[in-house]
Amino acid sequence: MRVLELSDEDAAAAYAGKLFARWGSYVIKAESPDRAAPSAAEDLYVNGGKRRVAADYRTAEGRALLGRLAATCDILLTDASVSDIREFEILALGGDRGPRVRTTITPFGLTGPYARFPATEATLLALGGYTFLMGDPGREPLTMPGHYAAYQAATIAYVASLAAAMHTAGAPGLPPTTIDVSVLECLVGLHQFTDTRWLANQEIRGRHGNRFDSSAGTMLSCQDGWFGFSLTQPFWMPFALMLGRPDLVEGHVFSTNAGRLERRGEFETFVVDVLSGRRKHEIFTEGQETWRVAIGYMATLADCLADQYLEARKFWRPVECKKAPPRGPRCAPQVRRSASPARISRPSTLALPSAHTQPRCCLGCPHSPPRPPTAKCAISPLPPARWTECACST
Asked: The domain that contains 35 carries what CATH number?
């Protein structure tokens, strides 16, 4: 499957393209020649295994090049602004021979009163109701760093685009499918049970910090960091035994979830008094292996890199590149497929525009995804192509 990713960002469309590239699709990332360069870390994370070409859809030459590219692809992905999508007719690239699936990921979708409004991760999380729920009661709301909203929307766009491509492949007479993904709608739709609690019980969730509002669980400090637990009733007896207080299993105010919630502050102080002198991994190991209590600890990046579970599952994998240092960088797949494990590749360099630039990258490089059949690659009547090289080329 061939995918044209049209974006000057390294967020929503880039992450959707990453998912296609990781699982075997031939992904071409088209970027404006004057776009700001991504950081090395972000480039590695979202652009590994893709071919790259410089082409500006705002110019006639760029649109012509992108049109020829689109005519060879099955799916078009873009997170360009709605104004640009409309003005430069991005969804029409390739004409009648264009991609059968054309997917847009925009802050508010292609239609509606907000369609042309600009947005950031912070404003989308606020409008989606997430900021309202994060933080301590009575204090300033909090937001999340990074590209949480973009990546969530990209995952939905990937699944929808793949399903549409499979559907249209079995019915060649169907017109092209346009998939309109709104980041805001994705966020609102991922609210877990927040909206259903209101619809069913007229209950409005609010900020409650690290505390769970339905059970006595939270994050508490210990000798070298923080540990967290969630005490639904089935976990109470083993947790009380772990604390060395079998007398609390029954007949005490802490013996029921209602009692622990009613006297939450006193209960948390009691737990800290018992466990604060112990190390977080010790608490986690005893709680899980001995008592089978749902308990964890706040892991640092160093903790994650050294975690024995992730090591046993071979979660961290070396980048497939001759120039990669022996101990890194390392990336990780989020899902596993027995028949064809995911490959972790470095991103290729960007092909600079010229009169003879043709969008093909990493030709013959053993560290990039396999080249599709020649009949699917050829873009004529272009002159001989200038190829981009991946980072492992010599």
From this structure: 3.40.50.10540
